[in-house]
Amino acid sequence: xxxxxxxxxxxxxxxxxxxxxxxxxxxxxxxxxxxxxxxxxxxxxxxxxxxxxxxxxxxxxxxxxxxxxxxxxxxxxxxxxxxxxxxxxxxxxxxxxxxx
Length: 100
Prior knowledge:
The chain has two helices and no strands. With about 100 residues, the chain is mainly α.
């Protein structure tokens, strides 16, 4: 797909004094340069996007691992707290029964 308008560019160059063949050659070279530049830009952009996606994926996996570890740690703390409460309640009930 042409980036520049060939007919318009050729007409402008001819109006500036270039021969039709010269004008056509200039427009073809300019169009080829534009196409090559666009292709290179597209490739660099594609590579950068892939790199960014890989970084985000890695960061999300790390974050997920950290969250799972934190969740496990919280569950262990909760279990320890429940165990402590049950032990204290059991000790208090046992002591209360001895007094009765």
